[in-house]
Amino acid sequence: MITPWQVATAAEAFAAGQFARCGWDVSVQYGANQPEYDLIASAGELFLKVSVKGSKDGAWGLTQSYLQLANYHGAVDAWLAKHTSKTVFCLVPFFEIPLDALPRMYLATPAEIGAWLKSARAGHGLTTLHEHKEWTVNTKAPGAAGTVDQIPAEWRFTSERLKQLAAATSQRPN
């Protein structure tokens, strides 16, 4: 059984490798009490603070610690307030990935993730980002039955996506 620490360690290693494969320099932080990011990736004058999130079940619980009185949108807003505009998330799911295959990877800004979380469950909001979730009649959000929440295809970790995010974050103040 893989532990949460092992999932996080593997996710960071895969993320660092993918940035390097795209020609970026990578500096990985190790140890306790890291700030909001796990690694820094740079290419020339461009740099990204990257928060790496691994998942062994295809979902990332991101805002549940901010949830009060079932206010999912408020939880997202509180979570967003904790992140700078220079941070990018690298999501690495290991769900149903054989050991001899590479995991899928996604890149998204906190604002993109926040918008996704708010629109999830047919707009009811959610604390957990799912790679793919089909809502049935037996869910706690009856209005969401029959809908599907899925990470947008444009979040896929590609060289083009990386350049797009780097250009956008370099324009933003901290």
Overview in brief:
A 5-stranded mixed sheet has the order 1-2-3-5-6. The chain contains 4 helices and 9 strands; from the N terminus they run αββββαββαβββα.
Would you give an account of this structure?
The protein is an alpha+beta fold. The protein has one domain (4-170): Trna Endonuclease, Chain: A, domain 1, CATH 3.40.1350.10. Helix content is 28%, strand content 24%. The protein has four helices and nine strands; from the N terminus they run H-E-E-E-E-H-E-E-H-E-E-E-H. It has helices at residues 4-21, 72-80, 110-119, 159-170, and strands spanning 25-28, 39-43, 46-55, 59-61, 87-93, 106-108, 128-130, 132-134, 148-150. Helix 2 (72-80) runs antiparallel to helix 3 (110-119).
User: Can you tell me the number of structural domains?
Assistant: 1
Helix percentage range: 25-40%
Over all CA atoms, what is the radius of gyration? 16 Å
Tally of separate helices: 4
Shape: globular
Structural category:
alpha+beta
Beta strands, count: 9
